[in-house]
Amino acid sequence: MRPDGEISVTRYTFGSDERAAERLKSISTVFNREARKVITPYINGQTPALALDLGCGPGYTTTMLAEVSGADRTCGLDQSAEYIRRASEAFPHLEFIRHDVTVTPFPARPDIIYARFLLSHLTDAVSLINRWLGELAPGGLCFIDEVEKVVTTVPAFQTYLDISDRIVRSGGGSLWIGSLLGQGDYADCEVLYNERDRLPVDDRDAAEWFYPNTVILWPGSELVAQHLSTDEQESIRGELLRLQNSAAGQSNITWYMRRMVLRSAV
Ligand SMILES: C[S@@+](CC[C@H](N)C(=O)[O-])C[C@H]1O[C@@H](n2cnc3c(N)ncnc32)[C@H](O)[C@@H]1O
Known about the structure:
By secondary structure, the chain is of the alpha/beta class. The chain is built from nine helices and seven strands; from the N terminus they run H-E-H-E-H-E-E-H-E-H-H-E-H-H-H-E.
């Protein structure tokens, strides 16, 4: 929180109700597996005192971080009171604190920081990471997992992605923040890993993740109405419902994730 107790005006555009939380849970089943692969080798049998999950949402990244880091304490930070409440209920053994991650100092000094699908929603992402590095204990690790691009041959997916990009930009962010992060200058730290990872996803999974926003966000959105008629919106919803029933293993959509591991100066 800011010193006056107000949470900052950063605008997260994808909601925090039950359906939004379920959506993040489903996304985590695929993306947590990949995150573990990157994080595990850097933990190297040590027991960090504190791991912080920045922009933890309903807590599915926090529980992954707790398991893979083996930290004594793992704590999720999020600006959404609703997500903090949901996460605390779902994972009572972990800690969750309402905090705007653009505000430093953090509530405690971490040995590990993790952030996924967060920096798309924030401005000045590279300088923010630099500030986060200053929050780490000496030799602490910062893991970043953000989207660089999503490539698809399915028109309904492409339209959904174009609209999502507009929605995120209207909130001051950038959906495809990954490449900018990969090229950033990070001071007083060692860049241990900075790669673009390719992750093909089944059409049925992508359709399941995309559909909720078309019924939660799209109907009341002027921005969506400016770009898609109600018939076009309905046709995309129909196509996403159809794709949810496609065969396992059918994949016409691929995520390209920018994954970075930075170690703060000792
Ligand atoms: C797409 S969700 C990702 C949640 C989680 N990291 C995951 O991958 O499942 C982005 C989260 O960032 C949070 N968020 C956005 N801006 C924030 C800020 N300035 N401070 C703290 N949390 C923020 C939102 O409330 C939301 O829970």
